[in-house]
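FIELD: query
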Amino acid sequence: MKNEKYLYYYLVLFLLMTLGAFTWQMFMPDLADQYSVWNASRGWQTEIALWNLGVDIGIVITLKKRNFAYAEILTLIAVLLCVLLGGHHLIYALTAVSGNTALHWLGAVEVLFIGGGSGIGALYLSHSFRS
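FIELD: result
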């Protein structure tokens, strides 16, 4: 028996994370300049914010429909994004020789460890992708 609730719990967590990211990337893009080694780019920050919003719409639809297949796929996509993006932040946090790395450490903890780790747990506990 599949435990769908774990996927839905995870998608709510991921939704909160991406809504937070949307907010600061859209309305406070200067944070990237102040707290990372990447500097600011209003255009890129806006594009990432809008990408997050698009993913969020898919999550809201999935949560509303309570569709297990959608939830599995969205959770897998979210986990892969968390591992890739959070890992990218971790690399910068560990290797930067100058500049402020606070945003990178926050990205590594929140995105890689919390987002990626809880998503892997949700996939495992829900018995996703098992025959």
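FIELD: remark
The CA atoms of residues 20 and 44 lie 17 Å apart.
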